[in-house]
Amino acid sequence: MGGLRRVVLDVDIPSSVSTVELADRLGRVSGVKAVNVTVTDTDVEVLGLVIVIEGDNINYDDVKRVIEDLGGAIRSIDQVIVGEYILELNPQLLKER
Questions:
Q1: Where do the domains of the chain lie, and which CATH numbers do they carry?
Q2: pLDDT for 87-96, tens place per residue?
Q3: 60-69 vs 19-27: helix axis angle to the nearest 10?
Q4: What pLDDT is stored for residue 88 in this prediction?
Q5: In angstroms, rounded to a whole number, what is the distance separating the alpha carbons of residues 70 and 56?
Q6: What secondary structure letter does DSSP report for 85?
Q7: In whole angstroms, how far apart are CA 72 and each of 8, 24, 46, 57, 75?
Q8: How much is the pTM?
């Protein structure tokens, strides 16, 4: 299934890397329409990030390559949504589980 896609990644990246540069590079990946990079944890050597990427038919291999080329690592893929529109999950449903 192609179409609109949202991918949420938990990423560690060296603290020397500019999050602006990272977002710019991810924004140039084929299919990417929007990127949100949020710092969730800081350390002397490593930043913990949540990266949300939206677009059409995003090339995940290229996303991974950008992150790895900057010395980062994808710790987990926390959410993937694919379809004609972005289907939001009510957070209350997760709390009730």
A1: 4-95 (3.30.70.1340)
A2: 677 666 566 6
A3: 150
A4: 72
A5: 24
A6: S
A7: 15, 15, 9, 23, 9
A8: 0.86
Of the candidates 42, 37, 51, the one whose C-alpha atom is nearest the C-alpha of residue 9 is 51
Work out the number of other CB atoms within 10 angstroms of the CB of residue 88: 8
How far is residue 86's CA from residue 73's CA, in Å, rounded to a whole number?
26
User: What are the angstrom distances between the C-alpha of 91 and each of 44, 65, 96?
Assistant: 32, 31, 9
Q: What is the pLDDT of residue 22?
A: 98
Q: What is the rounded CA–CA span in Å between residue 77 and residue 93?
A: 19
pLDDT of residue 97: 56
- What is the pLDDT at residue 87? 67
Determine phi and psi for 41, rounding to 5 degrees: -155, 140
User: Cα 35–3–89 angle (5° rounding)?
Assistant: 65
Within the chain, which residues score under 70 in pLDDT?
A: 1-3, 86-87, 90-97
